[in-house]
Amino acid sequence: MLVTDLTFWAIKMTLSATVSISWVNTVIAAAQKLGVERHLLLQTAGINSAELAAERWPIDHITRLWRAAERCTGDPGFGLKAGAQVGPASLNVVSFLLQSSSSVREAFTHLQKYQRLISDGGRFQLLSGQQQTWLVYHPCQGELAFSPHQIEAVLAAVIRFISWLTQAPATPRSVQFTHTQLGPMDGYQAIFSCPIIFEQAFNGVLFDNVLLDQTLPQADQQLTHLHEQHAAAQLSVISNDVMKNLPQWIIKQCTHSAKTRAQVARDLDVSSRTLTRRLSAQNTSYERLRDGAKKQLALELIKQPTRSLADIAQTLGYAELSPFYRAFKRWTGQTPARWRKQQTQK
């Protein structure tokens, strides 16, 4: 029943914000293009190269990587250049789903749904008007504040990807950032070709509805359905990872104290709401997992003839025997003593 520190780290990774390694590789490739070798970039970020073998990184890791790239390149336009290099590989399976969508607007609707396959580090919001629509990017940073280069890369990637989807240059009506201007305006104009405003209330790009609603060249409803099934399966894999180890971890944590959902969430460095949402996506809850974990441990402990029922109850976090008896009868339909007797007779 031992749960290693590695398992605990894996649980935290699954529940907390993470980013796909494909996005990590995009940052590394952009830095290498500017003459910064990968080992130097990782060393500056304080990240072990062995971690490149992981499928996903904690969101603070990618922030450290962005900050290191900013320092190593000394280029105030690094974020824009990195975003402009984004291609289908940067978005993994999601890129195929977007490409087969009926329109850019539908593509971004799919992106909103499957954003987590790329990164938990932000979400997109469409604010539609009669003639124009804002595509707003809401960063979801970890303990470390995002580098503004991360934000600029995302909006630059939006332009790059829309151009890829439509097979034509994508020119927005306006772009705005919450941070101050980082580099020469020429660098921004090379990407966006429109008015750009800084120190605003949100980060976003304003598009004409005509651009967002035009039929995409490779629109295919059947392919969209197939790609969405694949994306949903991939999303399920990410969500299911936590289910492999969380029950055992709960057993370890709850044997001598009845931790609440909020306390466990704090241990895992996530909010209680995030923990609830992730478990709800798996049609379960913390309370249900804890109850199942207690049942599993109770059935194992009661097989040990030297363990008294009072000791087992205390180990499971019950202050008295009566609530343990009620819980055990609910689990098995029998009292602990009767169940133990039956086990010894087998």
Radius of gyration (Å): 25 Å
CATH topology title of the largest domain: H-NOX domain
Looking at the structure, what is the overall shape?
Answer: elongated
The overall pLDDT average reads: 85
Domain count: 2
Give an account of the 3D structure.
This protein has 346 residues and is of the alpha+beta class. The protein folds into two domains: 5-222, H-NOX domain, CATH 3.90.1520; 241-345, Orthogonal Bundle (Arc Repressor Mutant, subunit A). The protein has 17 helices and seven strands. The protein has helices spanning 5-15, 21-33, 38-45, 59-73, 78-84, 92-99, 104-114, 148-166, 185-192, 209-213, 221-254, 261-267, 272-280, 286-301, 309-315, 321-332, 336-345, and strands at 18-20, 56-58, 122-128, 132-139, 174-176, 196-197, 203-208. It is elongated and about 80 Å long.
Please outline the helices and strands.
Layout: H1 5-15, E1 18-20, H2 21-33, H3 38-45, E2 56-58, H4 59-73, H5 78-84, H6 92-99, H7 104-114, E3 122-128, E4 132-139, H8 148-166, E5 174-176, H9 185-192, E6 196-197, E7 203-208, H10 209-213, H11 221-254, H12 261-267, H13 272-280, H14 286-301, H15 309-315, H16 321-332, H17 336-345
Parallel strand pairs: 5-6
Antiparallel strand pairs: 1-2, 3-4, 4-7, 5-7
Helix pairs in contact: 1-11, 2-4, 2-5, 3-4, 5-8, 6-7, 6-11, 11-14, 12-13
